[in-house]
Structure formats: C-alpha cells, structure tokens
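Write out the 3D structure for:
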Amino acid sequence: MSKDMSNSQPLYQQIANHLIERIEQNLLRPGDQIPTEQEISDAFGVSRITAVRAVKELETRGLVTRTKGRGSFVTSQSSWHSTGESQSERLSVVALVLPFQEMLALGVLLGVEQVVKANGLHTSLRNSTADTRHEREILIQDSENGIGGMIVYPCSSADNIGAFSSLVVRRFPLVIIDRKIRGLDTPFVAVDNVDGTYQATRHLVELGHRDIAFFGDAISRIESEAERLRGYCRALIESRIPVRDELIIADGLVVDERLDADTGLDQFGYISEATAGAALEKLVGLSSPPTAIVCINDGNAVQFIKSALKRGIRVPEDLSVVGFDNLPFSAHIEVPLTTVEQPFRLIGERAAAMLMRRIADPSAPYESEILEPRLIVRESTGPPRSAGS
C-alpha cells in the first residue's frame, strides 16, 4: 500500500487521496474495511496522528463510517458516479430545498449551516417557489449533478412521490422537514403539529370560546396541515364541544384576486387578504358565527386580522385569532398575534445532523424527530363578549 509522499500536499491529505482513489476504482468496495490507523502509519511512514487525520478526512466526506471496536468501513456512497467530479468534490455541498423565501427560511438555514459547516461541508439554498414542477427539477438535477445530500421542505405531501421515491431507492442522503411525503418512509424532522393546534384551541376554550373556526389552505395536500386540524378537533372533543363542519374551511377559498394556479396561494405561501375576507364573510354569515379562529399559519392569521378590522370586527373583542409559526412580524402587527412557536433553527440543526449521519451511512435505519411547540399568548386573543366582564 506504500505510496510516494513527495508532493506538496499535507501528508494526511495525500493519504486520504490515495484511499479515495482505491475506493473510486472499486479496489475498496462498499462494506470493505479500510486499513487501520496503525497499518496506515506503518505503510506510509507517518505518525499515528497523521493517520488518524487521514481517516477522519474520509469520514467527513462520508466515504467511510467508523464502527467502535471494529474499525472503519467503506460506505455505499463510494459506488456513486458523476461525470467530471471526484467523490470528494461531490460530497462537499448539501442542498437545502425550501418552497418559499419568507422569514422562517432564515431560521432553518441558520440551523442547517451551523451543523453543515462544523462538518466541513457547504450549504446550497434552493427555492422551489412552491411550484411542484420546479421542485421536481431540483430533486432530479441536484441529485444527479454532484450534491452530496438534501434537506427538503416539500411543496406538498402528495406531489413528486416519483422523484422522492427515486432518491430513496438510490439511498441518496435525504431528510424531509415539516411535511411528510405520503406513502414514503424517509428520515424526518418536524414540530408536533397536533400538539401545537391542540394548545392553541385549548387556550381559546379556556378563555370561554365555544364556537371556534379553523382555517386551512391546503389540508388535502399537506400532511402538517392535516395534523393541525387533528389537534384542533382533539381539543374541542376533549372539552366536550362538538366539531361543527361549517366552522372548518379545509382548503381555502379562491376569489377574484389572481393567485398561484397550482396552490391557490401567493408567492409567500399565504392566502391573500381578499381570500381571507371571503372566508370571513362566509363564517360571520352563519346562524352561530365563530367568536374565534385558529389559522394554519401566521401569514393567514394576519390576513384575517386585516380583513376583520376593515369590516369593523374588533380583534379580540369580537373575534379572537390564533396563528402558527411565531414569525418575527407576528409580534409587531396592529394587533400582536397569539401564535404557536416552531423552533425553526432547531429544526434546521436536527435535520442537518441527521443528514450528516445519512451521508456517513446511507444504509442506516431511518430516524424521525418531533420537536415540541410552544404557545405564545399576545393581544389577538381574549374572552368572547358573552364571557367577558
């Protein structure tokens, strides 16, 4: 195994490059044990510290995984091929694919970058613009053109199952956040959506509300929204309050204003103020109108507050409104918003750490982590008029 060590690269890098060549030439195959650090030290005439650093370089790049007490073994990633790029170049970048450009993207990105950078890799931020066709292009192109792994916040739970399943079959390192892909098992990180809206709805019940509406914009297509509806229903039923069909708007309303043709949402993933107004008119026109509403996210909740105030409906005196996400603007609108906080940065950190483990061993069992939400109470919620003083 001895090799000339006379070039100008650091010794550990020369040793790592030699082992990479053997892996790429299939002289070391997936599952094979690479030489021990002592064997490397003896063969190349270097210190044990240099040998350890060379092996660590291969681990960082995801080419080998260490098993305590047994040694280091080549991962299945070594069988990947990409025209014009070496394995080390391909594994140096991971992609974070998000469907929007709003504030929550920054939190997730900061969390991902922190972990990825600590592992010696780089992050590429990709925006699918909530367009399933664009998302599919990103999944296919990036996975075939050198990206070492992906963290994806899907446009929906029901689209692009073909592209996602192709990545799963290939054991491409992939972690999904927030929205599960229906029908597929993948590594996954999200907040507890059921508990989040459970907390929000219980808060309204404890204030004295009984007629509580729920507004979702894409429940039939997005699993996290369906989970939030379950939390709302659970809180009402546990409080012995029947769920009223007419108080649930499951997939939004599209009115005259031009919205995205595929999703019924604007470029930020939210309904328009006009759509919120149409939904509000529908709800207040009921024989027993709601005194409170749980919205699927902060953006939609803000639109409901704007529409209510324009119609002379006071918030929270006439209508309490709750959001979900705790985005930075939610505390600074005309009526500061009661909302459920998602730990976006922590989601990014946990997803990136999970991805690093997938890169090290793509055949490892799938992991799943559900993080705790937190209810943030502000001025947009209060007792209903009948329960007030």
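Residues 225 and 261 are 20 Å apart (CA to CA).
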